[in-house]
Amino acid sequence: MVTQPVPFVGKAGPKDDDGSRKGGDDANFETGTVTKTRPKTKRPNLYRVLLLNDDYTPMEFVVLVLQDVFNKSREDAMRIMLHVHQKGVGECGVYPYEVAETKVTRVMDTARKNQHPLQCVMEKQ
């Protein structure tokens, strides 16, 4: 929690019998600080979105998915696709949970619609 001082100015001092302050309106002012607490927001956890290699999905399809779902340039998509092909797995990006989940779902749906076994997963960074 973060506390921030908030200035407070108010009248203080003795009162007359009728409830008014002694000495007029300008006399006996008291100043102090009131603190207000605000909850500190936490950064969301980030997740890596990974493509897994298989022996059946065409490389060109993987490049198109990387361009469409992850907004990669043709060159970046080719580099990631080759990395996946050679190493077995490759990182497409790092996102908050909901965004990563959506991207994984889009990749899997696109692969299924095109009858490819391409797998996409996410893992906490």
Automatic annotation (TrEMBL):
GO terms for biological process: protein catabolic process; proteolysis. Coiled coil: none annotated. Keywords: Hydrolase, Protease. Gene3D superfamilies: 3.30.1390.10. Involved in the modulation of the specificity of the ClpAP-mediated ATP-dependent protein degradation. NCBIfam families: PRK00033.1-2, PRK00033.1-5. Belongs to the ClpS family. PANTHER family: ATP-DEPENDENT CLP PROTEASE ADAPTER PROTEIN CLPS (PTHR33473:SF19), ATP-DEPENDENT CLP PROTEASE ADAPTER PROTEIN CLPS1, CHLOROPLASTIC (PTHR33473). Binds to the N-terminal domain of the chaperone ClpA. This is ATP-dependent Clp protease adapter protein ClpS. It comes from Devosia elaeis. The lineage of its organism: Bacteria, Pseudomonadati, Pseudomonadota, Alphaproteobacteria, Hyphomicrobiales.
